[in-house]
From TrEMBL:
Residues 560-782 form the Glucosamine/galactosamine-6-phosphate isomerase domain. Pfam families: G6PD_C, G6PD_N, Glucosamine_iso. GO terms for biological process: glucose metabolic process; pentose-phosphate shunt, oxidative branch. One of its GO terms (molecular function) is 6-phosphogluconolactonase activity. PANTHER family: GDH_6PGL ENDOPLASMIC BIFUNCTIONAL PROTEIN (PTHR23429:SF7), GLUCOSE-6-PHOSPHATE 1-DEHYDROGENASE G6PD (PTHR23429). This is Hexose-6-phosphate dehydrogenase (glucose 1-dehydrogenase). Residues 1-19 form the signal peptide. The gene is h6pd. Pathway: Carbohydrate degradation; pentose phosphate pathway. Residues 34-216 form the Glucose-6-phosphate dehydrogenase NAD-binding domain. One of its GO terms (cellular component) is endoplasmic reticulum. Keywords: Carbohydrate metabolism, Glucose metabolism, NADP, Oxidoreductase, Signal. Residues 222-513 form the Glucose-6-phosphate dehydrogenase C-terminal domain. It comes from Salarias fasciatus. The lineage of its organism: Eukaryota, Metazoa, Chordata, Craniata, Vertebrata.
Length: 791
């Protein structure tokens, strides 16, 4: 039976690469499995069990195996612990006791512990493997390294594997990595880059064990098989809400050194719940087993998700956590940790199918029960006057029940007032005998229930995928970075926020109930139990928005968040005034990363911004196709335009690509933009121009040394940047200085040096282009955050 599962898996799973590579990936022979962190918690709980199951499933195949538990401790002390763990593995349910005993004995004989600390240790391991292959005349199929160690050790271990443990002769190398893969976008990028120097992408298997849960991996096939019933209702017109929930009763005692640095958002929401969200909302691929298609469709959803800010999350911390931290981290009694152990986050996918559908992701420790599920709750448009118990009056919902809770087994439940789902997977069955339990407000008998015939552990499942070289259920680099791009701004905006303290378990009562209002989420009750010593000062206390002068122009300064808030409010005020007076607002926006926070603020808070009467122009553009991530328009589109209701004909990207080439003088792109500007605006004047300043003092794409004077006549020009991409199109000082209002936005500690210099230099636009910004009739306001101002 286990063998059939694996064979089935291989046929279901599209293996990447060429036909030869695919053949190699499955070529029978000897397989060496090395678990680093082989006596650790995860190995003990799940990994050895998973590998034993793999071994049992392969017992009658042409493959042979060696298993190595690797660790930093010397073999003498670690060996007894190691064998205790191995002896405790249990028999798969479908094996007879006798057969299992034989297999277990073989498994123990094939396993050994090795200290793997230095490069010599790794070289020793490689030598041992090669010797064994030679002595026993075996062909090598591949080597599988499972890194169940803290992430900071990954790069070093990957390098050691790369330099000393690569198999020869076409055998495969697979390296499995456990989360955390970074703690934010920059660290995830750095880790991906480091690993990329030692391992090829196809050699890395990043595990998210939720993708190995039977119900989770059925989501896409279920959506496909039931396409006919789902297509008409799986959209904003019918879905009331999507909930993705992981509730846990345990605390994090014993894991605090790790957990306190991560918290629930990084531990569960960024990975497990986000993956479920992707499977629920992505367009089901034509071919469920095509890695490329699945990845592509996932990335599309990532790019349609509305940005997450402070108002899209609430956080909590169980009361005993503080004392646990003090104890495990050796801290004094006045130490306060702000790490959340509970979070509820409200997400929205801003595309035609899901626009406006609230998607709630929530997880926490020390809650009242252990349960994991995703629920699609549909709108019920039937009003029941009298017969409340009739089936048509009851909630309409589909529940993907991952496990635990009142039901205790994994299942997919479809309420009977929706449709009867088809059931084509031979590994699943319909449950017809309904225990007397209810699931999310409905008795089991009101659902069609499907459950796997045999329950399998997520890790065991994923281990069999790795062995089969099947990459569908692992996290690709792009997927990982897209997820961190979503979560990093939220994590930064929550920095310094105090979580609501909750007692834990049933005593939490309604304290963690949340209210969803439009795009925002808040706790439903205002009661906050906070012990007096939890009340601290946030770093922004005592500093409000400050007004002053900078380079003899007006300046507004505040901490980043308040500054962005203020700029957004000023922008809206200017827009409303222009629309009142002239019926239209012409806004020119710059690229770069500084304005992104402003765009998010506008999207999430300024619902009454008069987008319908706003024309959006570009301050500058890089000479790359607009579809590339480097393009300023591309970023503006992703962070702002696609999320607001602005008419297409009010959007004016710079024509950097004409005649299928980029920024060629003769194509006249700059002139074209200038003409459009002249045609639509009053005397080519913008109402508002938003600028940033680069480290070298450049603004728009006017760089030091640009022939500023030569540009005097034109409004738009092709310019050169010292950094790539070198060619740019930019508004000139002419165009900028005719504006009614110019805002110069400068943020971050990195800009402090620049601000200090700028406060001293005289106007010299050739050397410091930003000093050339001097509106002739309008006003200039500097928006500088305290980090940039004070350093
Ligand atoms: C892990 C988290 O990834 O997932 C844990 O680190 C969490 O904090 C666990 O408890 C939940 O997994 P499961 O399979 O028990 O739902």
């Amino acid at each position: 039976m286990l063998v059939t599962v694996l064979v089935l898996l291989v046929t279901l799973c599209a293996l990447g690469g060429t036909a030869e590579e695919r053949q190699e990936a499955q070529r029978p022979g000897h397989v060496s499995v090395v678990i680093l962190g082989g006596t650790g918690d995860l190995a003990k709980k799940y990994l050895w069990q998973g590998f034993f199951q793999l071994y049992a499933s392969q017992a009658s195949s042409a493959n042979t195996f060696s298993f190595y538990g690797g660790g930093l401790s010397p073999a003498d002390s670690a060996k007894p612990v190691f064998f205790e763990i191995l002896k405790a593995v249990s028999c798969p349910k479908d094996l007879s006791q006798e057969r299992c005993a034989v297999l277990k004995e073989q498994f123990l004989r094939l396993s050994q512990y090795r200290q793997l600390k230095t490069l010599e240790d790794y070289q020793g391991l490689a030598k041992h493997v090669e010797q064994q292959l030679q002595e026993e005349g075996m062909t090598e199929a591949g080597r599988l390294f499972y890194l169940s160690v803290p992430a900071f050790a990954y790069a070093d271990i990957a390098e050691k594997i790369n330099s000393s443990c690569r198999p020869a002769g076409g055998a495969w190398l697979r390296v499995v990595l456990e989360k955390p893969f970074g703690h934010d976008l920059p660290s995830a990028q750095a880790l991906a880059a480091q690993l990329g120097t030692a391992l090829k992408d196809e050699e890395m298997y990043r595990i998210d064990h939720y993708l190995g849960k039977q119900v989770v991996s059925r989501i896409l096939p279920f959506r496909k098989e039931n396409k006919d019933s789902l297509d008409p209702i799986w959209n904003k017109h019918h879905i009331e809400r999507i909930e993705i929930v992981l509730k846990e009763t345990l605390d994090v005692k014993g894991r605090i050194p790790f957990y306190d640095q991560y918290g629930v958002i990084r531990d569960v929401l960024q990975n497990h719940l986000t993956e479920v969200l992707m499977l629920l909302t992505m367009t089901p691929p034509v071919n469920v087993s095509s890695i490329q298609e699945v990845q592509q469709n996932k990335l599309e959803i990532f790019s349609s998700l509305l940005p997450l800010g402070k108002n899209q999350a609430v956080i909590g911390q169980y009361q005993a956590y503080k004392a646990e931290v003090q104890k495990e981290l050796n801290k004094t009694q006045d130490h306060v940790s702000l790490t959340p152990t509970f979070a509820a986050v409200l997400a929205h996918v801003a595309d035609a199918r899901y626009e406006g559908v609230p998607i709630l992701l929530t997880s926490g420790k020390m809650l009242d029960e252990r349960v994991g599920y995703a629920r699609i709750l549909f709108k019920n448009d039937i009003f029941c006057l009298q017969s409340q118990d009739s089936v048509h009056c009851k909630p309409k919902q589909i529940v993907f029940h991952f496990g635990h809770g009142s039901l205790q087994y994994p299942a997919i439940l479809v309420s009977k007032n929706l449709f009867k789902p088809v059931q084509t997977d031979a590994g699943w069955k319909e449950v017809t005998e309904h225990a007397n339990v209810s699931v999310l407000g409905l008795p089991l008998s009101d659902y069609y229930v499907q459950t796997p015939k045999v329950q399998r552990e997520a890790y065991a499942e994923l281990i069999s995928h790795i062995f089969a070289g099947c990459k569908n259920n692992f996290i690709s680099t792009e997927n990982l970075l897209a997820s961190w791009s979503l979560w990093t701004p939220l994590l930064s905006s929550l920095k310094g926020s105090f979580p609501r303290v909750y007692p834990g378990g049933a005593d939490n009562g309604g304290m963690l109930d949340v209210q969803l209002k439009g795009n925002e989420i808040s706790f439903n009750s205002k009661v906050v139990i906070i012990s007096p010593d939890q009340v601290g000062r946030s770093s922004t206390d005592g500093f409000q928005v400050m007004q002053g002068k900078f380079r003899s122009a007006e300046m507004v300064s505040a901490w980043a968040e308040e500054l962005v808030e203020r700029l957004a409010a000023d922008l809206q005020e200017a827009a409303e005034a222009a629309v009142r007076k002239e019926g239209v607002f012409h806004l020119a926006l710059s690229g770069g990363s500084t304005p992104i926070a402003l765009f998010h603020r506008l999207v999430l808070h300024h619902f009454s911004f008069p987008w319908r009467d706003t024309h959006v122009w570009m301050v500058d553009e890089r000479c790359v196709p607009l579809t590339e991530a480097e393009s300023n328009f591309h970023s503006l589109h992703d962070h702002l335009l696609q999320h607001v209701r602005i008419p297409y004909y009010n959007i004016h990207p710079m024509p950097v690509q004409l005649n299928q080439r980029l920024c060629v003088e003769e194509d006249g792109g700059a002139l074209l933009y200038e003409k459009e500007l002249g045609k639509l605006t009053n005397g080519s004047s913008f109402h508002f121009v938003l600028l940033g300043v680069g480290y070298d003092g450049h603004t728009a794409s006017l760089f030091p040394g640009s022939k500023v004077k030569e540009l005097r006549q034109s409004m738009v020009a092709l310019t050169e940047s010292p950094i790539k991409p070198h060619q740019r199109m930019s508004l000139t000082f002419n165009a900028i200085n005719q504006a009614h209002r110019v805002a110069l936005m400068v943020m971050g500690k990195g800009k402090h040096e620049l601000i200090t210099q700028l406060s001293r230099v005289k106007d010299d636009p050739e050397k410091w282009p930003v000093t050339g910004v001097k509106p002739t009739h309008g006003t200039l306001i500097w928006y500088i955050d305290y980090d940039a101002l004070i350093g």
